[in-house]
Amino acid sequence: MKVEIYSDIACPWCHVGKSRFERALAAFPGADGVEVVYRPFQLDPGAPEKPLPHRAVLAEKYGPQSVAMDDRITAIGEAEGLAFDFDTVVENNSLLAHRLLRFVLDTYGPAAQARLKGRLLEAHFGEGLDIGDAARLADAAVAVGLDRAPVAAFLDGDELRDEVLAEIEEGRRRGVTAVPTFVFEGQWAVQGGQDPETFLRVLEQVAEATGAPAPEAGESCADGACEVPATGRG
User: Fold this and answer.
1) Which residues pair with 136 in a beta bridge?
2) If you compute the radius of gyration of the chain from its CA atoms, what whole number of angstroms results?
3) Which domains are seen in the chain, by residue range?
4) What is the 3-state secondary structure (H, E, C) of the chain?
5) What is the pTM of this model?
6) Contact partners, residue 127, CB within 8 Å, separation at least 6
7) Which end of the chain is less enclosed by CB atoms within 10 A, N or C?
8) What tens digit of pLDDT does each residue of 135-153 get?
9) What pLDDT digit, counting tens, does each position of 68-127 carry?
């Protein structure tokens, strides 16, 4: 079984969704036969390529309610064992990080890509990692067991930019409008950071191929995903 997960490092629900899906996968008897691939998606493709404080960026978009939004996801993260420190979160355009994830997938395989994805989410939301800083992205790759030299050489160029942008566009053509979105066997999509029981049930349904109705994109809780804004930054 192949599961493609569309997500953005800049999305806190993608951090929650990854944790919950992995808990479900650990409880799934057929886990050894599941290939998980992370696909790129950008909530704000027009974000400037410079570090900006998260609190200021969110306040500009959502006003006073931004504090309550951060508090809610922080509480949800605590229940999942995930740290969200929004006072230190730095926002930046996520394209460079997505290019690195694609490079790692192509070079080292899905398992290495998943490790790096987890490290980037953990460091971005809990340790102030600037996802547009090539040196710190290389540090994250080393932290999950990858060699610095090839990663640094890749980050120093423009390789895979067009391929990643094409992947993002393909996701939109497939109907992805919010992240995380989990696509099972290229046919069934589940949107949002669902609870592990839901993910486990979907894994079982797809594996068994019983013909039971499968979840479709959009049939998930509305606040369990990060929506693409109607307009760009601001």
Assistant:
1) none
2) 17
3) 10-214 (3.40.30.10)
4) CEEEEEECCCCHHHHHHHHHHHHHHHHCCCHHHCEEEEEECCCCCCCCCCCEEHHHHHHHHHCCHHHHHHHHHHHHHHHHCCCCCCCCCEECCCHHHHHHHHHHHHHHCHHHHHHHHHHHHHHHHHCCCCCCCHHHHHHHHHHCCCCHHHHHHHHCCCCCHHHHHHHHHHHHHCCCCEECEEEECCCEEEECCCCHHHHHHHHHHHHHCCCCCCCCCCCCCHHHCEECCCCCCC
5) 0.90
6) 85, 88
7) C
8) 999 999 999 999 999 999 9
9) 999 999 999 999 999 999 999 999 999 999 999 999 999 999 999 999 999 999 999 999
pLDDT at 81: 97
- With 50 as the cut, is the pLDDT of residue 134 above it? yes
Any bridge partners for residue 4, and if so which? 37, 183
Q: Residue for token digits 């953005």?
A: 8
CA distance linking residue 12 with residue 109, whole number of Å: 24
Retrieve residue 106's tokens. Answer: 């192509």
What is the reported pLDDT for 90?
97
CB of 155 within 8 A of CB of 137?
yes
Is the pLDDT at 217 greater than 80, yes or no? no
What span, in angstroms and rounded, lies between the C-alpha atoms of 165 and 22? 27
CA distance 123 to 102: 19
The CA distance from 230 to 94, in Å, is: 18
Pairwise CA distance, residues 45 & 43, whole Å: 6
